[in-house]
Amino acid sequence: MDWDHIVVGAGSAGSVIASRLARAGRKVLLLEAGGRDSYHWIHIPMGYLYCINNPRTDWMYRTAEEDGLNGRSLIYPRGKVLGGCSSINGMLYLRGQAADYDGWRQMGCIGWGWDDVLPLFKRSEDYVEGPSEMHGAGGEWRVDNQRLHWDVLDDWIAAAEAWGLARTDDFNTGNNEGVGYFRVNQRRGWRLNTARAFLEPARNYALKIETNAMTRRLLIEDGKVVGVEYEKNGAVRQARCGGDVILSAGAIGSVQVLQLSGLGPAAHLQSHGIAVERDIPGVGANLQDHLQLRCAWRLTGAKTLNTMANSWLGKAKIGLEYMATRSGPMSMAPSQLGAFSKSRPDLETPDLEYHVQPLSLEAFGQPLHDFPAMTASVCNLRPESRGHVRITSPHAKDAPEIAPNYLSTEGDRAVAIAAIRQVRAIMAQAPLAKYDPQEIKPGLSAQSDAELVRAAGDVGTTIFHPVGTVRMGADEAAPLDPHLRLRGVGGLRVVDASVMPTITSGNTNSPTIMIAEKASDLVLGAA
User: Fold this and answer.
1) Which of 233, 375, 419, 430 sits most deeply, having the most CB atoms within 10 A of its CB?
2) How many Cα atoms occupy the beta-carbon half-sphere of 280 within 13 Å?
């Protein structure tokens, strides 16, 4: 037994738990299928444009063709590099709502309520305004203010206030209703990923990091996971450990590893010639994601990124500003301004999240429009639709089938209709009238309920928050117990966004880090 623990995946969760276990005196082997985070675009905030859908940093997944999206297939970015999705995501620090975690506790996941997890969020936090009842300081995970300003976004705040939302400067107190600027995981204008934040401080401990190490399967003996088989530089290797193997490959990757190891829905595994170690129908089920509806308006007389970045001179000025001050558009998160609201007044907590941007484009990766514009994307925070992840072959290098099943329920379609109507109402408020906003997406031709559902399918796209595919729960149908142990199999814990029973009401990166903090306590406490 060369190691106390093996951690599979050096992403948002894997980096955290590997660091915590190593610093507690454990010998840890951390396996990452991607390379090191040396690519310069990882660390420049706007570099997400060059990291998503780039095989150097992304698994390059696509969804199945989705009926709810009118037959479209979407790119489905997942980080394949040290830091995982924290190296390519939107850098937004959002915990979700207290009701999310209290809901988990009410489902029987004891120890996962808001009062239980708030100290875990604070443990790793380094909040820009210092410590308080709600925030921590001095931790590894920096939470900073953004380093640029747009008048058109200030006017959108005023429009949202005129519509009925209150202004807020903190979305992370347990009730995120309101409108305001997001805070970001950056340090002095650079992206902060979990590799820099958590792994670097642990390098002097008994932590070995293997990059370009593709996990092929778990090693299972007598009903217990005892190690991992992986491929590196064309050679197949095995590593064993005396304690738990920690599977932190994400809501897509962890499912694939489990199913390739014979842990999953038996009939599907047998159809690919995989010997079944344990029939676990829930492995790969319960996929949840936030579908964002990208609504956009052409503006008159507004300063937006479209007008700044559509010339070589403009791009040069943007580059020079970042070089000189680490500010300006190159320091931008994909979304600067946010809002949380209710799709109908009888709800207790917000079920819609806005990402508002001073730019517009046809689709991710395409050029900005050559006119002033803004985008107000809105997503359903609590989708009813459930999809799945399933292997497509017995080979680890073959991408799994990812079928989110967006807009497959009447409830989700009703929320989409309400969301488009609500964002139109905000854009029609007086503070934005000076820009004479003209809707370009989805377009005013969509007015009836049926037309708006069709329009949602045309403009909807993932906001990159897959969760729930190896859910924890008190019920026997849940693959994991609330201690993140796989039922019926010893020596294994799953630690990533796949364990969420229901999706959190906001961006999922920092909740995933919290899950890793909780798991480190569970693993160390079990000893």
Assistant:
1) 419
2) 28
Total length of the chain = 527
Domain match, 356 and 221 both:
no
Q: 3-class SS at 507?
A: coil
Q: Cβ(45)–Cβ(38) under 8 Å?
A: no
Backbone angles phi, psi at 52, to 5 degrees: -75, 135
What pLDDT shows up at residue 311?
84
Place of tokens 């992403």: 11
Distances (CA, A) of 180 to 50, 334, 374, 377: 27, 15, 16, 15
* Average pLDDT, integer, range 424-434: 98
Task: Kindly tell me the sign of the dihedral angle through the C-alpha atoms of 129, 135, 137, 143.
Answer: negative
CA-based end-to-end distance of the chain: 17
Q: What CATH number did the domain enclosing 438 receive?
A: 3.30.410.40
Q: Are 155 and 435 in contact (CB under 8 A)?
A: yes
In this predicted structure, the answer to whether residue 277 has a pLDDT above a threshold of 70 is yes
How are beta strands 460-462 and 75-76 bridged, if at all? unpaired
Q: Are 191 and 185 in contact (CB under 8 A)?
A: yes
- pLDDT of residue 363 exceeding 90, the answer is no
Q: Which residue has the tokens 């990812």?
A: 402
Which among 463, 486, 511 is the end of a domain?
463
| Residues with catalytic function | 465
Task: State pLDDT tens for residues 35-65.
Answer: 999 999 999 999 999 999 999 999 999 999 9
Return d(Cα 511, Cα 13) in angstroms, integer.
9
Supply the pTM of this predicted model. Answer: 0.97
Beta bridge partners of 298: 373, 438
Domain boundaries, position 77: 1-142+190-288+393-399+466-527
Query: Do 249 and 8 touch, CB atoms closer than 8 A?
Result: yes
User: In the 8-state DSSP scheme, what is residue 182?
Assistant: P
Number of domains in the chain: 2
Nearest to 398 by CA among 251, 260, 279: 260
Domain match, 480 and 456 both? no
State the pLDDT confidence band at 121, using cuts at 50, 70 and 90: very high
390, 401 Cβ separation under 8 angstroms: yes
How many angstroms separate the CA atoms of 412 and 248, rounded? 30
